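A.,

Following up on our hallway conversation. Structure tokens first:
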């Protein structure tokens, strides 16, 4: 962990567990924090934080551009492409942009130099401010196959920031989640109190173990009933850093797109205390794994 910088990633095995609710409230409970929305397919942190837009930039990938006059139909590029993004049909080389992975291999293997590369916009990153929180939001254009380039750019931008960063990860355990947590100093896994919630918790638990990331669990929507997600934590010896009760008022604030810590001293204290516990865990991990 770089001096003066802490990155905390918030994950869940599926959408709707309270990952964004926890992320935006933690960010708002901390002085001068950075909130980064890496859920680029469906970013919704901005709906709560309502940041001013101070800057926007497009994110590009490169894709093949064919010079028909130079192509002699040898099909070496077609044979090379493992993603079947190229086809030679009726004496014409065709590129299917939607399945191209922008590896650039087709241009490298073309003996006629008939393939070059050009930029294609796949989304954007917005920078803004919401009171004490700087906000970075990645947005993937509809129909694009992968948000990894946008998340990689967000991760680069985070490296320039001091203080505490809260990363709101995409749900699940796919490539985009892996990219989102690769610089994280600590991961918070959010789980619901159901058998399905325990199953989804196990999925992200396996991911952070694979990446050897320090982590703890926040149990959301807790009732007095048996909690399978908590049972899973006990079975695996996982630290539970916080329990958020099933609370109609908190649910209504969240449903209305409000930041709970800005609406109530009770919730300000609840999320601030949770951050203090997480910060202690981060400090502990820094000592034992410097």
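Then the amino acids I'd put at each of the 290 positions:
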């Amino acid at each position: 962990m770089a001096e003066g910088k802490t990155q905390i990633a918030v994950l869940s095995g599926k959408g709707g567990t309270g990952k964004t609710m926890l992320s935006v409230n933690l960010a708002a409970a901390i002085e001068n924090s950075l909130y980064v929305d890496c859920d680029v397919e469906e970013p919704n942190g901005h709906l709560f934080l309502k940041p001013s837009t101070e800057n926007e930039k497009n994110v590009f990938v490169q894709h093949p551009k064919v010079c028909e006059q130079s192509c002699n139909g040898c099909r070496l590029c077609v044979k090379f492409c493992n993603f079947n993004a190229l086809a030679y049909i009726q004496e014409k080389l065709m590129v299917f942009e939607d399945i191209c992975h922008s590896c650039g291999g087709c241009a490298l293997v073309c003996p006629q130099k008939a393939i070059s590369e050009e930029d294609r916009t796949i989304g954007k990153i917005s920078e803004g401010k919401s009171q004490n929180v700087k906000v970075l939001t990645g947005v993937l254009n509809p129909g694009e196959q992968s948000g990894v380039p946008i998340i990689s750019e967000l991760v680069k931008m985070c490296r320039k920031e001091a203080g505490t960063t809260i990363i709101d990860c995409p749900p699940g355990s796919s490539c985009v989640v892996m990219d989102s947590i690769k610089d994280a100093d600590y991961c918070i896994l959010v789980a619901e109190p159901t058998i399905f919630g325990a199953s989804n918790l196990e999925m992200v638990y396996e991911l952070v173990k694979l990446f050897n990331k320090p982590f703890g669990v926040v149990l959301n929507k807790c009732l007095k009933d048996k909690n399978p997600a908590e049972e899973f934590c006990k079975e695996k010896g996982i630290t539970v850093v916080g329990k958020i009760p099933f609370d109609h008022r908190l649910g209504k604030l969240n449903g209305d797109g409000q930041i709970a810590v800005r609406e109530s001293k009770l919730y300000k204290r609840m999320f601030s205390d949770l951050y203090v516990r997480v910060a202690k865990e981060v400090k502990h991990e820094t000592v034992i794994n410097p």
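The CA atoms of residues 217 and 240 lie 5 Å apart. Curious whether your intuition agrees with the design.

B.
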